[in-house]
Amino acid sequence: MQLKAKKTNLKAMLTTASCALLGSTANVSAQETWQFDTAIMHYAEVDRVSATEAIIAGTKTFNNDEVLSLKLTIDALTGASPNGATTQPTPQTFTRPSGNGQYNVKAGDTPLDDTFHDTRVQLTGQWTQPLLKDYTVSVGGNFSKEYDYMSASLNGNVARDFNKKNTTLSAGMAYAYDVIEPEGGIPKPLSEMVVGDSNDPNFNDDFNKTRIGSDESKSTIDLLFGVTQVINRQMIVQLNYSYSTVSGYMTDPFKIISSVNNNGESQAYLYENRPDERTKHAFFGQTKYHFDSGILDASYRYMTDDWQIDSHTFDFRYLIPFTNGHFIEPHFRMYTQSAAEFYQPFIAQDEAKPNFVSADYRIGELDTYTVGLKYGMPLGDGNNLSFRLEYYHQTPKDNGTQAIGVLKEVELYEQVDAIIAQVTYSF
Amino acid sequence: MLIVNRYKVLVALSVVGMSGCSSLGVEPWERDLLAKKEMALTSAPIDASLDDHIYFSKEATSGGRSFGGGGCGCN
């Protein structure tokens, strides 16, 4: 009883807070109430990055079918991320991206930069309402800020229903503007990482010669066209085409590539460089089918871009309800991508430097899969609690590059294992 | 002439397409299953946004279901 009183208070408090934000009074009628979804998720890679993300999202549906959604996301990231350099049979030393000190990597280990820690706050708002007969319009915005990164975006979408609302066509557009301001500045593309005594009075001067500024930006335009079709009483299908063009700084300022001699031994580390234009096309298809025993959610996405990355994503979920209102939902996801044309695991020292190069395995040839299970239960009064546990596995591949000399003896494409654990509470 | 014929073919295809669509679907009183929350195309938006964030930062593809642009400097 006490618990219930507390829950009601929390909802009332959040409602008041939301109303205060919107400048209205907290006079909540029976039809016009807020629905809140809260979640906390922990993502942890073995020996690498871990992140904790908390979300509180509120949705208010007004009597005239207008819907307001607000969402606050906070996440914290810590741990180690591959810096792009190749594994070596000898220990390696790297300068931190900030220029403040160095870190060592043991012989035979994938070089990881362990300085990553960041906190991100993100605010999202979306307003959706019917317009004229058969039309729905939606506009929204997003703002996200972390220590060295800012992203802001706006979006608009219009949808029209046909054929007794069995067919819906939609078109949308979004614009995003991102600024990155890494500690230590923007590295000069393809310049050599200064590795030496960071207490040396000349070190800072040498380090600064590898910097070209303090910040960079990029802008993204997304177009999205979709058709949703009810097939029959049990089945609905959605098909989307999306076009995305990004212009600006897409290089990862924290990533380097090893320049190796004929025997595969590292001679220098160069800062990576990516093209400043990228155009992507994505085709997405999804169906939901209501079987007697449960609900199948199956989707497929094909993406192709002018960096020569092609990807296929398959996603399946099957929701199995129990008579007491509880449910379980197994999940399986499979993803495969080809390498960007400028991806290389290392550079041969005696060959001409390419204009664009990156050794970031995330734009190399890569297969991943996810298996997971969600368990949900109703708690009465329309409140719901669910738990999700998933295992994510990445298998980076060699894109046909032959390992040379000592690189044949080490693991160049280390696999990654991660666990995703999440609790969601809706009230 | 060729252009006119192409136009006719387009119109014919559109008509066939639209009538094809109109034979699909349900009457308003047959929406009992489709109206369930679990039958929404994005039935768990919180899960979807968390997943988008993870895969955006770990793979080279984003978006498709919805907009994929911008986001974070995540590693």
TrEMBL record, chain A:
Residues 79-101 are annotated as: Disordered. Residues 86-95 have a biased composition (Low complexity). It comes from the Bacteria. InterPro entries: DUF3570. The keyword Cell wall biogenesis/degradation does not apply. Keywords: Signal. Residues 1-30 form the signal peptide. This is DUF3570 domain-containing protein. It comes from Colwellia psychrerythraea (Vibrio psychroerythus).
